[in-house]
Amino acid sequence: YPSEFLLQKITEDNQIPLHLHVSVSLQYVAGLKGNALVEFFHGSIAEVENEELRHLMWSSVLFYKTPNVEVMACVLLSTKAIYFLLDDSFIHADEHQSEFWTTENWDCDNSSFHLSCCFVLKLNDLQSVNVGLFDQYFRIAGHSADHIVTCLTRDSYNTHTFIQQLMAVLSLLARTPSPEPVDKDFYSEFGSKTTGKMENYELIHSSRVKFIYPNEEEIGDLAFLVAEKMDCLTDLQSLNILLYVLAFQVNPVEGSAPNTSSLQPKTLILTSSDLFLFDEDYISYPLPDFAKEPPQRDKYQLADGRRIRHLDRVLMGYQTYPQALTFVFDDVQNQDLMQNLALDHFGE
């Protein structure tokens, strides 16, 4: 340890997404390669000597206690824990952080000294992993509100790779087997005796950590919600969700340089007739076991919706991934001009 393959892999993965800005401390981490990265992990992050770094990923993260603050993090998976190396701007982003982080002695005179905060979730405390729709994000849950984190990878490949690595690491844990019998038949495992409906698909790992995947009903519920938001009555059977993707809406920042903009996280949903932008709650659903009341806001809140027939053109930028798309609509007060023209000039 570490193997040449691992060194090469974590070096390739150690790249901050171009569209996101991070602090100096995380830029320093992103500049490390190979052995220097492993030495940094053991010298500055690892809690015990005999743990091994297995995977590295850059991702936006959300915490259960601060559901409105999305922050960039370097996620490090070892044989003992998951480490979230966070942007130091996160500390000052929310007034409720005082109980969450210890911020004593943070001012350092040495300008070459880079300080960042690290959130640690021990693998022994891990209880469940919820994978989001189309593998766009996943939520890691422990035993309390302090131990729930959502990684917004916005990339099915990164989600899949991390889940595979996490399962491999969990297989190394020695946990005592649960006392209840493990041989359950299909119907008692997945079926609810009261409703007869299928529950979300669960995979119970040998370490007793649950991996929960969305089932077909979630797409059905989403389609129903989208149909509710549409102006006209739509046959739910004919409504197909063609695309679900976590994206950013680009908003120009007022009073600053022309090229500066803020990125607002949005869920983009495309149907055969409409394009929708939703504000989605990625951290509160499904409700954790300790939650005593539902969250303050719904899972999906409509931010914008436009008819495809009003789409005039799509402008594409020349930069590499992530691609910037500009949708130009010609819906003048939502009037269908051709229809009015036909009535005025060609109707009797």
Automatic annotation (TrEMBL):
Write out the annotated subcellular location.
Cytoplasm
| Nischarin C-terminal PH domain boundaries | 241-347
Q: Name one GO molecular function term.
A: kinesin binding
Q: PLEKHM2 PH domain location, by residue?
A: 114-178
One GO BP on record is:
lysosome localization
Instruction: Give any Pfam family that matches.
Output: PH_PLEKHM2
Alphabetized InterPro entries for the sequence: PH_domain-containing_M2, PH_NISCH_C, PH_PLEKHM2
Give a GO cellular-component term: endosome membrane
Q: Which UniProt keywords apply?
A: Cytoplasm
- The name this protein carries in UniProt is Nischarin
Biological source species: Dryobates pubescens
